[in-house]
């Protein structure tokens, strides 16, 4: 049986970031989230090898999850944070195995793992409003483009990833995902959006200028 880790063992791992107040407002709690954090899981395959009835999630704020007739959990939120998961492989299978109504999934927390990318599999769940991926190893800023295909997404966290070191990280996030209300657990202000729009326009002008100079250089070489 997969049992929760003891309180003493938590000290060896990073503390989870508390959800922002806006996150809590965006998520309608018909049930507590499926709490599978702090399990030292190296991959999602681990959850596929065990019987769903043997999985005992931690209680969330003193509330215990109900199950359907197949033993799946009646919830719309999945928390897999603070593990050591390094691949999205098996994510779709895990969601369908553990969640009673997978299509209703609206909150996914995979923060503090070892993921190096944002996989297209997340697009199978268009009702996701909150996606926590902070504290991973995501390196390619263009991976964020995939999230633009999720119109209901309202809150995203990617701080603590290598992509945060990109100079245009915040501008890119806000221009690529104009629908979000919080970024990296902070509320997005009107001033944030105006600044991002200005910086984004300046960046596009510089890109166009570089292309023009390259075209002229190539033309002169003939």
Describe the protein's architecture and organization.
The structure is a single chain. With 222 residues, the protein is of the alpha/beta class. It has 2 domains: 7-188, Ribonuclease Inhibitor (Leucine-rich repeat, LRR (right-handed beta-alpha superhelix), Alpha-Beta Horseshoe); 191-222. It is built from 6 helices and 7 strands. The protein has helices at 7-10, 21-26, 45-49, 91-98, 169-176, 190-220; strands at 34-35, 77-79, 107-109, 130-132, 155-157, 182-183, 186-187. It has a 7-stranded mixed sheet with strand order 1-2-3-4-5-6-7. A hairpin with a 2-residue loop joins strand 6 (182-183) and strand 7. Helix 5 (169-176) crosses helix 6 (190-220). The longest helix is centred in the last third of the chain and has 31 residues, at 190-220. The termini are far apart.
Mean pLDDT: 83
Please mark out the parts with pLDDT under 50 across 5 or more consecutive residues, or reply none. 1-18
Strand content: 5-15%
Q: What pattern of helices and strands is seen along the backbone?
A: HHEHEHEEEHEEH
Q: What is the CATH class designation of the largest domain?
A: Alpha Beta
Strand order of the largest sheet: 1-2-3-4-5-6-7
Please outline the helices and strands:
Layout: H1 7-10, H2 21-26, E1 34-35, H3 45-49, E2 77-79, H4 91-98, E3 107-109, E4 130-132, E5 155-157, H5 169-176, E6 182-183, E7 186-187, H6 190-220
Parallel strand pairs: 1-2, 2-3, 3-4, 4-5, 5-6
Antiparallel strand pairs: 6-7
